[in-house]
Amino acid sequence: MRVHVDTELCQANGLCIQAAPSVFFLDDDHEVVHLVSEEVEEHERERVQEAVSLCPVRALSVEA
Amino acid sequence: MGVVVVGASLAGVRCVETLRREGFAGSITLLGEEKRAPYDRPPLSKDLLLGRVEPGALQLWDGSAEAELRLGVRAVGLDLDGQRVRLDDGSELPFDDLVVATGSAARTLPGTSLGNVFVLRTLDDAVALRAALAGARRVVVVGAGFVGLEVASSCRARGLAVTVVEASSEPLARVLPESLGRRIGALAVAAGVELACGVGVSAVEGGTTVERVVLDDGRVLPADVVVVAIGATPSVEWLEGSGLTLDDGVVCDARCVAAEHVVAAGDVARWWHAALGRSIRIEHWTNAVEQGRAAARAVVHRGAASPYLPVPYFWSDQFGSKIQQSGSIASADVLTVVEEDAEMGRFVAVSERDGVLTGAFAINRPAHAMRLMRQMKDEWAAPAAA
């Protein structure tokens, strides 16, 4: 599963990290969220979907 | 029959989507009082006022979850035993399960029917305020809560003179300890806002449109536009006498259940938070999403649904800073500053009770804020699971 973070929209609210901590990360040097890995494992789908619905700026999407 | 969701804003919409995701196959009716299709509110005080987004970009309802969306219809009563909602067109809508998600309504100042006096709750409010700001020079905001301060921030960004009047001694007194409210007040002042705390409004005056605000201490503030941002009250009038327990919201158990076949979510719901050990009601975006989902799970899974145990969270973007708070900072908790960099405008404080982390407050430190929130999620879940 491919997950996309729109870094133009991302405002580092960080709720995706609460929902799927092994998929998304935010470190001290970045002002936007990054993916831990480009390819996201299928068993993370439910957590990623929660992250998508929790993003207040709708910066996240799942590409099949 | 099927599920009737009253309230077509964030909690109601997320509830409908989750009902379908959890496999609910019956009919769903989503009722909205406004004629507008469901929309997202956080941009109303920020990007919409600044002209960076237009109303069409705020759509919440993509139609992917199968439901009948009925707009411009208001619920006026509930027959709990008969399992029917009464509507303002005189008709009745039967339900197997009811989701109460009617949100809250902006408080107003008595006697302020003058032109160019606004509240900011709906998209129509925001569009009307934006139009008025285009011809304004001086704005008075009554109330230094998050909505008031975000409006003040947007007005400053538009180059307008802004005074914020707050009855409490510090901004955000209802939601934050004084020392943190004072810090946010300093951000507003640094951005050029006149902040008048500890003083009430005695009159809002003008001809057909507003011209001035008179304060308790005799000060007179000229104003082309006044925004009243003094909080919201849960929209429960339609439930009075229904048999549901109302006490600053619809009173629910730990699973958001208000009565057999009735759940509630969002601003309107007061539920028993089993990890905090008290009943709370939250008027923030994140809670509307999470509680909408929790209420849906309570409908589908009944008593097998998990108790709703969120770590409360809110954010605010104002005066170029990002403010984030997670957890619940009670006045009796011990507050400690754990990071401060005045030059970078960064600040983090935590609250603790008996050595347990209860809350985290951060300005411009999202990564740190998220680590602390994560810690609370883990710690709060542990005793509940045991």
What's the short story on this structure?
The complex is a heterodimer of chains A (64) and B (386). Chain A is an alpha+beta fold and 64 residues long.
What can you tell me about this protein's structure?
Chain A has 64 residues and is of the alpha+beta class. Chain A is 23% helix and 19% strand. Chain A contains 2 helices and 4 strands, in the order E-H-E-E-H-E. The longest helix of chain A has 10 residues. Chain A is globular. With 386 residues, chain B is α/β, with parallel strands linked by helices. The radius of gyration of chain B is 21 Å and the shape is globular. The longest helix of chain B has 20 residues. Helix content of chain B is 22%, strand content 32%. Chain B has a 6-stranded mixed beta sheet, with helices on one face. Chain B has a 5-stranded parallel beta sheet with strand order 9-16-10-11-12, covered by helices on one side. Chain B is built from 6 helices and 27 strands. The two termini of chain B are 39 Å apart.
Fill in the keyword field for this structure.
heterodimer, A: 64 residues, alpha+beta, two-stranded antiparallel sheet, two-stranded antiparallel ribbon, globular, B: 386 residues, alpha/beta, six-stranded mixed beta sheet, five-stranded parallel beta sheet, 6 helices, 22% helix
Secondary structure: number of strands of chain A: 4
Q: Which structural class do the helices and strands of chain B define?
A: alpha/beta
Task: Report the span from N to C terminus of chain A.
Answer: 6 Å
How many E-type strands of chain B?
27
Shape annotation of chain A: globular
For the biggest sheet of chain B, the summary is: 6 strands, mixed
Number of helices of chain A: 2
Question: Looking across the biggest beta sheet of chain A, what order are the strands in?
Answer: 1-4
Using CB atoms under 8 Å apart, which protein chain pair has the greatest interface?
A-B, 17 and 24 residues
Low-confidence stretches of chain A: none
